[in-house]
Amino acid sequence: MSNTTKILIIEDDAALVKIYKNKLQREGYNTIISLNGKNGLEMANAEKPDIILLDILLPKLNGREVLKKLKENSQTSSIPVLILSNLAEMDEVMKGLEEGAADYMIKSEHSLEEVVERIKSILNSNNQPEKEKKEEIPKENTEQEKKPEQNEN
Q1: 20 to 30 A from 134, CA-CA: which of 14, 25, 97, 124?
Q2: Cα dist from 59 to 13, 32, 38, 66, 119, whole Å
């Protein structure tokens, strides 16, 4: 069974790109590569990947600008973005999350396996079938509705 999940990697470190690409392809993902922010933004618009791995320090257009433009565009705003950067200051992490990133991982603090697991987690949370979401809601509402009635009696 082949995986049709498409991952866009926007990263200027060619050696790191090769490592990510090889690991993700072994996991069954299709990968698209961009070595700069400007081209990465164009590829995101053209390819509509399922998730984007985004570095912050990029040539031609930095990752923060790429993220901003992705989230402003109705065609790409729902694509989850996982920031992978060496900018480890808490302010940078918070800015990335506030600007719409699904998550922010510091490259030097996470193994390749952890990155892959985070990708899977983000994809799973984005692809949870509507049916499952709807089934969970009535159970919670039913329980919450019963509790106040019991407290009133």
Answers
A1: 97
A2: 11, 18, 8, 11, 24
* pLDDT tens-digit series, residues 48-79: 999 999 998 888 989 889 999 999 998 998 99
Indicate the number of domains in the chain: 1
- Residue 98 inside a domain? The answer is yes
Instruction: Identify the domain containing residue 15 by its residue range.
Output: 6-128
DSSP E strands in 58-108: the ranges are 81-85, 103-106
Q: Give the domain CATH number at 102.
A: 3.40.50.2300
Collect all residues with Cβ–Cβ distance below 8 Å to 6 and sequence separation of at least 6: 29, 30, 31, 32, 47, 48, 49, 50
